[in-house]
Each structure stands twice: as C-alpha cells, then as structure tokens.
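F.,

This is the one I mentioned.
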C-alpha cells in the first residue's frame, strides 16, 4: 500500500491474505466503561481501552466535568465521582461521537448543573429529539440551541418535583437513546420516591445487542437492572461501584469484520484476537453472515478465524444472501462490500439506522459500490448489491466516515487498485487499520 497524496491512500491489489491481527479495544465498550467508571464510587482501572478520536472525546469531556482520568497507553485509571460531577458548569465538544453525545446528554440532564453539548457539523445533523423528549418528560430542562431535534443542547438543572416512575422512548432511530437512559437510571431512581425507574420501548428497538451490552456492563459496575417484560427495563437505586481488579475492554468486533471478510475473499486463514465466543458485542454475529455466504469460520475464547473456499475457477467465491442486519448495522457495511465477491444479488435489510450515522451510509454505500461496477438498488432500510463480472479501479470517497474507508479497502482483493480518499478518517476508531491490513498481505 502506498499513499499517492496526503489525502489519498492506494490499496494495491491483494492476491492472497493470511495471518493474525490483534484488535484495538471496542469503541462501544470503551466509552461505556469510561462513563460508568466516572459515575462509580471508587477508582476503576481499565485495560485495553481504545485510543482513538471517539474515546479521546469522552476522556476530554470527563476531565472537563472534573473527573480525574489518567491514561497510560491502553490502560486508564478513572477516579469515580459517585454520580456527582465536581464541575457544575461546562461546555463539552463531542466531535462526531454518538457514544459520547447521547449517553452524556442523558446523564448530565439529571446531574444538577448547566452544560452545553455540541459537536462537528455532522453531529448537528444526527437526531437526538427522542432522547430529549424522554428526559424532559422525566423533569429535565434540556433545550435546543439550533435546529429542534438536533444538537447543540443546553442543559439546566432538572425540576425535582417533576420526577416520574416510568418513561417511554422510541427505539426505532438509535439504541443509544435507550443506552443513555439506562446509564442515567440508577442516579435518577435514587432521587425518586419510587426508588426505581421503568424504561419502556415504544415500537421496535433496533441494534438490541448494544442495549444488552449496556445492561451487562451496568451489572458489572453494580447496578440493579431487570427485564420483567420484552421491551421494558426496571432499574433500581443501587449506586455504581468500581469493579474489583482491572476491567478489561474487549477487542472491537466491528473492526474484526474487515479482517474476517478479507480472510473469506482472499483465501486466509485470517485470525483476529481480542474477541471470541463470549463477547458482549452483537457484531460477533457477523460470523454467521460469513458462514451463510460460504466462508469457513472458527471461534475460540479470545479469537475468531475466517478462510475462503476455492471456486471451480480457482478463485475464492461467496454466495449472495438475503439478511436482516438490524442487530449488526455496523458490520452490515462490510457485508455490502462482500457482495462484490458473491454470486447473485445480496440484499441487506433492517439498515435504516445507516441514514443517521456518521454520514447517510445508504446513499454513500450505493454511490461508491456503483463506482466499482456493481448494480445497486436501495430503499429507506435496505440495499441490494449485484457484483459485476470484473470490478473496476475506483477512487472511493469516504464522507468523513471511518467505516467507509475500512470496508471499501477490501475491494482490492478483486485484483484492482482501490484509491481511498481521506484515509485519516479511520482515526475515529482504528488509527492503525491500514498498517494492520498490510501485515496480512501474502
């Protein structure tokens, strides 16, 4: 791989790939763990924390709120504030990190201070109205400083006379709204006469595994979370407390999808370390997609391995699938690129959340797949991709979206150069991605 210019990285054709990659820490787990540690009683030692743009944003925000955070490589020590942030007035810049903006908005809505939350231009286009409606219905005082329904937000102290025992929130736009309410719930429950908060989901909940991850981590930090009925969560007043020993962050399962996909289309075997069969992350289910498309997958306690199967013409080929990706929206982008190597038309459903991510991913994916020669159709929550006989060399626009850069790099396994514009956008979650990709080249 070479860089043609400062803003373009050329991924040269990949004839064969095999080897092993150690994954960086999961962004989703890292940011949840940092916030939970900040809210907990006592000091928490975290290991395996992702060092990338989104986690740096969270760490900077916690420090601005007065939380002591010491960083030594992927080890982070957080001195918990027991739910009481020392600084009651602050302005927080949260970049384009949804895993920081949504949970912090919910938690700070009931933190008793005055806070301003803002981000980059794209963050101001990412909806947060359902979460704001929910917390304001619970007594919070959150108002919009720009377009209603979107950041920036101004938070004032909540009205303690308006506290309620239950709240409903829509689940169809982002699971991060539910995660935010769950993370804020123990402190909120302690302030109510009912000593609990019931969170009810209005409609379908997308990306359910991410909510499951949140609940599992809350319990690891001492919270009392029950699920008496589907779509309902009851959270008690138990305070967060630092776990005994060091809290280890798993490797990034979403990041694993790129390397496992490469193993499937470029021979392999490719093994990723840091995530395995007992992962908290829903994107581990991408292994099922690989298997259904014809790849060979093996899973261990702390690793996953994928390899391709040779076709009759000597190439490694896959079969098209029709798949509901509502529980693996990030890894579904990798599946869309895998469709370039599959016989038939691959249809991915349940991806409506793509439209409110770092960019409108449905439109972006359709545009860039077409550049490579694919036939693409799409709707509000689906995309269908039919591979051409031969992929074309293409200059890929990444839309300041890390996952666009990473998943489209895989097209080089079709024997064509792929020129990735603005490759530095991978710093959001995986700064070393292109270097790791190079180590697998055979």
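My design for it:
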């Amino acid at each position: 791989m070479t860089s043609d210019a400062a803003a373009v990285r050329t991924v040269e054709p990949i004839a064969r790939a095999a080897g092993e990659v150690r994954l960086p820490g999961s962004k989703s787990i890292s940011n949840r763990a940092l916030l939970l540690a900040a809210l907990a009683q006592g000091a928490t030692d975290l290991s395996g924390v992702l060092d990338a743009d989104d986690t740096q944003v969270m760490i900077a925000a916690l420090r601005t709120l007065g939380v002591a955070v010491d960083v030594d490589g992927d080890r982070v020590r957080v001195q918990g504030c027991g739910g009481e942030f020392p600084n009651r007035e602050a302005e927080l810049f949260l970049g384009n990190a949804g895993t920081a903006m949504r949970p912090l908005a919910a938690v700070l809505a009931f933190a008793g201070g005055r806070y301003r939350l803002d981000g980059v231009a794209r963050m101001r286009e990412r909806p947060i109205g359902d979460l704001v409606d929910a917390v304001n219905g619970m007594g919070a005082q959150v108002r919009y400083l720009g377009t209603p329904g979107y950041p920036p937000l101004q938070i004032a102290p909540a009205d303690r006379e308006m506290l309620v025992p239950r709240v409903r929130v829509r689940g169809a736009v982002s699971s991060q709204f539910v995660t935010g309410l769950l993370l804020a719930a123990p402190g909120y429950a302690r302030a109510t006469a009912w000593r609990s908060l019931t969170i009810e989901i209005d409609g379908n909940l997308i990306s359910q595994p991410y909510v499951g991850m949140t609940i599992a981590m809350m319990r690891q930090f001492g919270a009392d979370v029950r699920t008496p009925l589907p779509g309902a969560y009851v959270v008690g007043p138990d305070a967060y407390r630092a776990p005994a020993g060091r809290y280890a962050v798993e490797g990034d399962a979403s990041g694993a999808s790129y390397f496992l996909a490469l193993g499937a289309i470029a021979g392999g075997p490719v093994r990723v370390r840091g995530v395995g069969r007992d992962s908290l992350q829903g994107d581990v289910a991408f292994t099922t997609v690989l298997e259904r498309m014809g790849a060979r997958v093996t899973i261990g306690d702390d690793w996953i391995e994928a390899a391709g199967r040779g076709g009759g013409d000597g190439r490694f080929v896959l079969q098209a699938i029709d798949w509901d990706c509502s529980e693996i929206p990030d890894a579904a982008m990798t599946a869309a690129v895998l469709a370039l190597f599959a016989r038939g038309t691959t249809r991915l459903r349940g991806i409506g959340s793509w439209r409110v991510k770092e960019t409108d991913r449905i439109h972006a994916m359709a545009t860039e797949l077409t550049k490579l020669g694919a036939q693409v159709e799409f709707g509000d929550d689906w995309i269908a991709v039919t591979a051409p006989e031969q992929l074309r060399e293409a200059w890929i626009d990444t839309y300041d979206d890390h996952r666009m850069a990473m998943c489209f790099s895989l097209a080089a396994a079709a024997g064509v150069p792929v020129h990735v514009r603005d490759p530095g956008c991978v710093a959001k979650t995986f700064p070393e991605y292109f270097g790791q990709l190079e180590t697998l080249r055979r």
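Confidence is low (pLDDT under 50) at residues 1-5.

Talk soon.
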